[in-house]
Amino acid sequence: MIKSIPVGSVDYPFNPIAVVMGVDATFVGRSVDVEVKNLQDMLRRAYEHPGGAFIEILQNCNIFNDGAWEPLTDKASKADTVVLLEHGKPLIFGKNRDRGIRLGSNGRLQVVSLGNGISETDILVHDETNRPLAYMLAHLETPTPIGVFHASVRPTYEDAMQGQLEAARQKLGAGKINSLFSRGETWVVE
User: Fold this and answer.
1) Rounded CA gap, 132 and 127, in Å?
2) Which positions ≥6 away from 33 have C-beta within 8 Å?
């Protein structure tokens, strides 16, 4: 098999998390195929979420990207390359839990080392209901965020539609199918 782009693509990588955040998704997560506990939790939460849910699953392909996610799954490196998104917990990572993510003076996320005047209180606490934070995390490349970026509840399409139907019933009555067919302009087909 010959690859169509043997030296790699010059295009910027597609960012599915940023796309679904941009369309106002109410549940957005990311996991890695071999991180079974995290993946199970993501799938359970997505299933239980009222409305649509999106999970990006980083999966190895031994043909086109063999080993692409190894830094995120290798026991020796994953502590330094992955930040676990846990609601209400600080965005701390690293083998010694000595690195974190804070909001820089330029309004962008900044990876910092704890110590030398930077403490855990300077580190952002993950809030999965904070849409702007989720969008910024979607653009963070190193470390790679894994977990729930965003989760919020709002009426689903089905609930909103049921509300409209109920409001119409209260205003106009239950209605009858025969009166619907004979109301307004009608014609006879011969």
Assistant:
1) 10
2) 39, 57, 58, 59, 60, 69
Query: Token digits for 53?
Result: 């849910």
pLDDT > 70: percent of the chain: 98
Helix ranges (DSSP H) in 55-124? 70-73, 78-81
* Two structure tokens written together for 37: 């506990």
- Has this prediction a pTM greater than 0.90? no
Length of the chain: 190
Identity (one letter) of the amino acid at 8?
A: G
Q: How far apart are CA 50 and CA 151, in angstroms?
A: 10
- Report the DSSP pairing between strands 99-103 and 92-93: antiparallel
- Rounded Cα gap, residues 112 and 5, in angstroms: 36
DSSP reduced 3-state for 41: helix
Please report, for the chain, how many H helices and E strands are present, in that order.
7, 7
The CA radius of gyration of the chain, in Å to the nearest whole number, is 24
**Quick one: the chain helix, strand, coil %, rounded to 5?**
30, 20, 45
